[in-house]
Amino acid sequence: MQTDLSAALDIGGTKIAGALVDGRGRLVAKAARPTPADQDGATVMGAVAEVVDELAAGPDWARVATVGIGSAGPVDAAAGTVSPVNIPGWRDFPLVAGVRALVGARPVTLVGDGVAMTAAEHWQGAARGHDNALCMVVSTGVGGGLVLNGRLHPGPSGNAGHIGHISVDLDGDPCPCGGRGCVERIASGPNIARRALANGWRPGPDGDASAAAVAAAAHAGDPVAVRSFERAGQALAAGIAATATLVEIDIAVIGGGVAGAGDVLFTPLREALRDYATLSFVSELAVVPAQMGTDAGVVGAAAAAAQQSRLDAFAPAP
User: Fold this and answer.
1) Is the N end or the C end of the chain the one with fewer CB atoms within 10 Å?
2) pTM listed for this prediction
3) Residue 279 carries which DSSP code?
4) Contacts (Cβ under 8 Å, ≥6 apart) of 248
């Protein structure tokens, strides 16, 4: 039987998605479960098992050669454990061991969800053809990943490129991560909405106080909403410029719910980037929206697993 598929899992605080992905990035089969509200470790792992079992029951499971996991983090790829902020029941949870028990002898690769999104965008999306890229998810949190010299660079723990916790405001608000003035504390959806409310913006009659509602108000010209997105764009620009200066990326790809705000985010971000990315080797840095949408997690987890399998094949013998 030809083995040309990767099984992929995308694990987040609201949904656990799975897919079988072929060598062209196409989804051959899909399965999903809500992340259980009762988020103790065993219950959430039970939902993961249901997703894997549904995929394994299909006719294409025998073609699966590798298994990739993209998980909300932090993750520890070396230990095979995860401690997602939005899944309180998983702290140093042995996710890789649990998945291995479900998939047999197939190799399992774990990366953070931002790294998985990066793998997807580099393989099939907006970063395709770029050897050095930063890809970001700007949503409830801010995550990211790096492509360097044409390869996904997850780092030893699977968290490299986590731009959301670069400090861009030395005297800024404390961040739940323990830092201060992090990109996430300024540019995530909840913090965009928090800042707008603190500065006098008020929701409409429906009471919607989300970042999406702030974006709609900004599109309509509300000055407080506009300023909240300008501040988010400035924070993202500072983090992107710092990353570009360190590793010489030539493109930054931004996805996630906040990126759906469109020009009210991207216009001030690009304007601020001109103030921060001033050195000659970063001055032409492009900032573009992501293209892969909701399938980025599983496509990227599959790509990360396939890359790791290739690296393992050429690794020197112990």
Assistant:
1) C
2) 0.88
3) S
4) 132, 281, 282
